[in-house]
Specification:
With 123 residues, the chain is mainly alpha-helical. It is built from 7 helices and no strands.
Length: 123
Amino acid sequence: MRIRPLRTERDHDAALKRIEALWGARPGSARSEELEVLATLVEAYEQKSVDIGLPDPIEAILFRLEQTGQDRSDLQRILGVGRGRVSEILNRKRGLSLAMIRTLVEELGIAAEVLIQPTNRAA
C-alpha cells in the first residue's frame, strides 16, 4: 500500500480507481484499511477543491417542505400570509422579507445564509 496526499485531479482519479478495485474488501483486512484511508483522502480532497455552493432559496424551501411532509398551504401558515403571497414568493416574483427569513430559519431549519441569497429568477 503506497498512499500519499492527493494534490491534483490526476491523483484524485487514481485514488477513485483504486477505491473501485478495493470495494467489497473483507472488513479488517489490509485491503479494507487501504480502502478506508483512500476514502478519507478523497473526501478531504473533494471538500478542499470542489465548491458546491449554496442552494437556491426557493429550491431550499420546497425541498425542506417536501422533507417534512408539508406543502404550500403549510408555508402559508408558517409565514402567516395568503396563498397569493406564497405563490408570488415561490414563483420568484416577490422576495423574502427579513421577518420571513427569520421564521423559515426557526420553523424549517433552513440556514439563513441560504435564504438571504437572491433567488435564481431563471429557474
